[in-house]
Structures are given as C-alpha cells and as structure tokens.
Amino acid sequence: MMNCLFKYSLENKLPIDLIYINDAGELTFRAVIVRKITVEGILTFDIGKQQLRSFKRANILSAAKQRKKKRDKLCVI
C-alpha cells in the first residue's frame, strides 16, 4: 500500500503525510513529496523543513494522501 502512495507522490508531484520513527525512537510527522524510491527507502522533499530528506522504509510507520484542509468560516457579529 505504501509503495502505491510513494509512486503517487513521485508521479504527480503531490505531497503525502508520513509518520516516521527515527533511530532514537522519536515519532515525527512529515509532509513530503517523493523524489526517488529505492529498496532501502525514499528520498523526499520535506515541506516543513524545506530541504531534501531520506527516510528508511523500515522506519516509516504510516503514509497517507494529504487531506484538503477546510477553512474555518469567520462569524461576524
């Protein structure tokens, strides 16, 4: 399933959301655009850090398409 999402992001240049656990055991949430897929992991453009980042496949806990954010409507009184 994650391979399909990686290919989706790579081909369409659209962001996906990742939940990743680093080697220190810390969980991180990342919004990324996949640039390259390898056997060991993926090379991405991290939207939050504005730089290229690589992620080990074994440490990616979850991947999902980004949801469109609903804008809060302002109530004027």
Polypeptide structure, described:
β2 and β3 (41-46) form a beta hairpin. The chain starts with a helix and ends in a 12-residue tail after the last strand. The chain contains one helix and five strands. The protein has one helix at residues 2-12, and strands spanning 16-21, 27-37, 41-46, 51-56, 60-65. It has 77 residues and is mainly beta. The mean pLDDT is 89. It has one domain (2-65): Roll (SH3 type barrels). It is globular and about 30 Å long. Strands 4-3-2-1-5 form a five-stranded antiparallel beta sheet. Helix content is 14%, strand content 45%.
Structural domains: how many = 1
CATH class category label: Mainly Beta
Share of helical residues? 10-25%
The helix-and-strand class reads: mainly beta
Number of helices: 1
Write the element-wise H/E pattern from the N-terminal end onward.
HEEEEE
CATH domain topology: SH3 type barrels
In whole angstroms, how far apart are the ends?
47 Å
As residue ranges, the low-confidence spans are none
Largest sheet, described in full?
A: 5 strands, antiparallel
Overall mean confidence score, pLDDT: 89
Identify the strand order in the major beta sheet: 4-3-2-1-5
Tally the beta strands. Answer: 5
Shape: globular
Quote the beta fraction. Answer: over 45%
Tell me what the CATH architecture is: Roll
Q: What would you report as the Rg, rounded to the nearest angstrom?
A: 14 Å
